Structures are given as C-alpha cells and as structure tokens.
Amino acid sequence: MTDQRMLTGDRPTGKLHLGHFVGSLENRVRLQHQYETYLIIADLHMLTTKNTREDIAQVSENARHLVIDSLAAGIEPDRATFYLQSAIPEVMELNTLFQNLVSVPRLERTPSLKDMARDAKKDEMPYGLLGYPVLQAADILCVKAHVVPVGKDNHAHVEITREIARRFNHLYGEVFPVPELVTSDVPTLIGTDGQGKMSKSIGNVIYLSDTEAEVRKKVTGMYTDPNRIRADIPGKVEGNPVFIYHDVFNKNLAEVADLKERYQAGKVGDVEVKEKLAIAINLFLDPMRERRAKFESQTGLIDQIIVEGTEKTRKEVQQVVFEVRKAMGLTGAFNSIRRKAEKYRKANPAAYPVEG
C-alpha cells in the first residue's frame, strides 16, 4: 500500500450490475491493493436527476446495497473507506470554491450531461446537473486522490477535475495532485435488450445480486441476431449482445470459440448459446454470492462500515478545506477583520461589557 489515494464511487440509485463491474468495479478491486481507497456514496449527485422526497427516502437502503455489492465483488472492508457524500458538508464548500475555476461553455461541452438529462426525462438541464463535474471535482480533490477508475461516461468529468486542480495550483500554490484516469478494458457493456448500455433506469440489466434463476431468465430473454429466425441460418457474432457477454464473462475460451464458429455456420441454436452463457455468468457470480451471504449475516455491519468511513473521511476533508482556504487567503481575510474588531472592542469597553 502506497501513500497515494484512489477515489471513485456510485450514486445510491439502486443495486450494482454487470455493467458497473466491468466499467469500474473490477478496477477498484484490483487497485485497492495499490492505493489507499476511498469509495463515495454520491447521494448529492443523485439529486441532480432524482430529488423527490421518495428518492431521498431510499438513500439509506440504496447506500447499503452499494456497499454490500462492492464487498461481494471483492472490495475488502479493511482496505477501503466507504462514506456518504451528504454527511460531509465541507465537500459542498469546495464545490462552491471550484465553481469559479471553470466556465459555463466548458461545462456545456460535456456530452454525458445531455445524455443524463435525457435519460432523466428533463426538458431543461438543471443548474446542479450542469455543475455535476464541478461537484465531482470536489469529491476527488477533497481527499487528494491520485487515481480515479471510472466508466466511459465519466471520462470527460475527470478531465474537468484535472483542469480545476491545475488551475487552482496555478492561482494559489500546489495543494492538489492532478489525478489520473484509469479506464476499463470494457468501457461500456451493452444492455440485455441490445439497445444501448446496461442501465438501471431502462431495466436491461443483470444485477450482481441476481439469483441463478433470475440470471437464467434474463439471459433467455436477451436480444440476439434479429435476422436469425432458425438455428440453421448463419448468424452474426459481431455486435451480438449474447456473444459480447460470452467474451467478457465466459472463461472457457474454447467453448466460446466453438459456439461462435457453429453460430456463424448455422449449426447451433440461440437456446444452447444462451444456456451456456447463463451457466458462465452464474459461475462468475457464485463467488460474489458466497461473500454476500457472509456480510449479510452480520446485522448492522454495513451501517457501521459507512459510519466509520464517513467520520474518517470528514476529518480528512476538513484538513483539506483548511489548506484550500489558507492557500486562497480566505482565512487571512477574516482574521484581519477580526483583529480590528477586537481592537475596537477594547477601545470601547462600555459598549461591550464583560459577561459574568
């Protein structure tokens, strides 16, 4: 373990799925042994698209899902610090200070923000959503993270963080490391319906917490080559979601190669291809199910992990905010005013009688 830090996380909008695993979680599991790891439960980010009282009421339960899904996937509780974003108000102070280091046109060039607004069925982009990358910069820099493993959608956001860090350091002195982006080998996983990426809001997902039966049912209903109406018709492998999943999750490479060859020759049906995919995905998820059962059996453990992590992180962030205010001269400004106020009070004791 080095003295360098990793920061990443998720919005508490539901359970994690296979797309989360290949997009970022797999890298988190790998990198936790190389970096001091901070994993954010980003409920303030959630408010940019989900901010009803009903949405907010689900934060605590969804936070538990995020943590237990992460632990089941292989994050070790003694190597990672989970924390709830909204419980650290200093992050919002950093967000306010960073807003002045980036322009509106720069934020408007972030393509994923428009996609998020569209997916949330927003006719107009909320101010908070436009500033999403600025708050994300506050998340990353508040613990002075050196690396950020994220999915494809967040690449542009992390670049804005890098720009803000460089701009702050240029204006006020070296306070922040400029974080590096860690990309995934599978940046985006197509949904089971073949229509865009795997997404909770669309429902085309296989969750890390799905049972064997749920996986089989979802795989059976997966989109495949629409022009292949019989098993003896040669099918397309390239771009076929079923084979994309085989390539990612089926560790039996010889089986995958055989299925592809027979599929393209019209010598295997979709039923067999999907059956073997369901088996492969369940084998992939079985170790997670074992770890999940272990953590779920300890009532209150997940809540304790979140509380301890949040308290630890807040102390770290408070120190960083102190450094930021000092570097900017904000602390000095108020201290100067306070010193003159104290002189005035001493010069006018009748107006300020000593209590007691």
TrEMBL record:
<dbReference type="InterPro" id="IPR050203">
    <property type="entry name" value="Trp-tRNA_synthetase"/>
</dbReference>
<comment type="similarity">
    <text>Belongs to the class-I aminoacyl-tRNA synthetase family.</text>
</comment>
<keyword id="KW-0648">Protein biosynthesis</keyword>
<dbReference type="Pfam" id="PF00579">
    <property type="entry name" value="tRNA-synt_1b"/>
</dbReference>
<dbReference type="InterPro" id="IPR002306">
    <property type="entry name" value="Trp-tRNA-ligase"/>
</dbReference>
<dbReference type="InterPro" id="IPR014729">
    <property type="entry name" value="Rossmann-like_a/b/a_fold"/>
</dbReference>
<dbReference type="GO" id="GO:0004830">
    <property type="term" value="F:tryptophan-tRNA ligase activity"/>
</dbReference>
<dbReference type="InterPro" id="IPR001412">
    <property type="entry name" value="aa-tRNA-synth_I_CS"/>
</dbReference>
<keyword id="KW-0030">Aminoacyl-tRNA synthetase</keyword>
<keyword id="KW-0547">Nucleotide-binding</keyword>
<keyword id="KW-0436">Ligase</keyword>
<keyword id="KW-0067">ATP-binding</keyword>
<protein>
    <recommendedName>
        <fullName>Tryptophan--tRNA ligase</fullName>
        <ecNumber>6.1.1.2</ecNumber>
    </recommendedName>
</protein>
<dbReference type="InterPro" id="IPR002305">
    <property type="entry name" value="aa-tRNA-synth_Ic"/>
</dbReference>
